[in-house]
Design brief:
Elements lengths: L1 H17 L11 H13 L12 H16 L5 E2 L2 E2 L2 H28 L4 H12 L14 H27 L17
Antiparallel strand pairs: 1-2
Helix pairs in contact: 1-2, 2-5, 3-4, 4-5, 4-6, 5-6
Length: 185
């Protein structure tokens, strides 16, 4: 039992961006892959060199959901509230990261007959710059390998660059449109 617990702990930490594996990733269950999807997509700390959407982004989004469920107008943590621009940036990073993963998955699925769950694993691992693989990367056509390379670049540089450009590029308009209250959900 202690060996299994240690292996599970190491695999979960490694899935955040380390790329080391003590277990054969290709032999894991689909449930384990699904947990890895989540960990690899989030990635590492916001100030670190890890890929993914970052822990800070996930935390802001979780606190935003909690505030919405509680009916509060502000999302807060540790006696501080998050600005609306930080919340918009987090949503933008999440949506763009998700869109890149969907696009990468569709491109590779179109070019191969590999199982969808393995392709999704490879795509999210590339986006999160994790370095883990189910063992199919070498069997992919060159165009699919290029897609994984682009996802690695986007996952490492893209989200950071996007967040920085959003933080630095905020422009105030000299006017505001009337507010609308659309039905959501």
């Amino acid at each position: 039992m202690p060996d299994k617990l240690l292996s599970a702990l190491f695999a979960s930490v490694s899935a955040r961006t380390a790329g080391f594996n003590s277990l054969d990733i290709g032999a894991l269950t689909q449930e384990s892959w699904a947990l890895h999807y989540f960990l690899m997509f989030i990635g590492g700390g916001s100030a670190g060199t890890a890929g993914g959407v970052k822990v800070g982004t996930a935390a802001i989004l979780a606190l935003l959901v909690i505030a919405e469920v509680r009916g509060r107008t502000d999302s807060e943590a540790f006696g501080r509230r998050f600005s609306s621009s930080a919340q918009r940036q987090a949503i933008t990073v999440l949506v763009l990261g998700s869109a890149l993963i969907v696009l990468g998955t569709l491109v590779i699925l179109r070019e191969t007959d590999l199982p969808t769950d393995q392709v999704i694993f490879e795509v999210i691992s590339a986006f999160g710059t994790v370095g883990l693989s189910t063992g199919i990367t070498a069997d992919l056509p060159e165009s699919s390998q290029l897609m994984l390379t682009l996802l690695m670049y986007a996952g490492r540089v893209g989200t950071i660059t996007l967040a920085a450009s959003l933080a630095l590029g905020e422009h105030r308009m000299p006017y505001r449109y009337p507010e609308e209250h659309p039905i959501v959900g």
